[in-house]
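Sorry to interrupt, but I need a hand with the structure work. Could you write out one complete protein record for me, on any chain you like? Could you add the entry underneath, on a fresh line?
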Amino acid sequence: MADYGNQTALIVVDVQNDFADPAGSLSVSGGMEVVAFANDQVSAAEASGALVVFTQDWHPPSTPHFVKDGGTWPVHCVADSWGAELVPGLRVRGPVVRKGTGGEDGYSGFTVRDPTNGVEQDTELLGLLGDRGGERVVVIGLATDYCVKETALDALRRGFPTVVRPRACGLLTAHRATVTVQWVNMLTPEHSSWPANPAEERVLEGATYRLGIVQRRRVVRRPRSLGLALRTSEPGCVVQ
């Protein structure tokens, strides 16, 4: 179980019918299996006095985010629809941050982005963490290769040591091996503007990705299930 405390925030990303339920329009394979483990994390966080925040895609019926309106995605998580509801049985014990309410792209829980001009604006998530004195972030939810990844990266950009717990996450893409690619993307030089101080590296229970800053020329070792160790010569994000 993750080490929660009153300065930790657990962010539960988009555990909604359209992503988790097999009948959803953007269903994640095995998405419903995430719910039980997510509930365990919520209970542990709550018992430790940690802030628990839930994010929720909440789109209007028409938006440039959707294919039918010139965007990328099928219609999903339309406001007040079944697909937008948080999954029945999810232990919701904290504030809910809705994203995409004005038709924006809402990949990260921290920001939304205008799909036509790329302009970003903050959600209320950062303010919630600030109000509670949050200094560390744990991210779980759906989907690993989109909103979980973007939320974790945004947390890092804002200076929060960040942990992703994969047992409480699910991939939208069909090929499980592509999770490696998603995390490798976090090592690329485009993220080299992050703070230069290297993070302490450690594996939490052998099933947690610890995200932080890596020293130059440091070898990054991965769990066997994710393939070979990588060597990076640029600052970036360690995924363990």
Notes: The helical segments are 17-20, 33-47, 125-131, 144-157, 178-185.
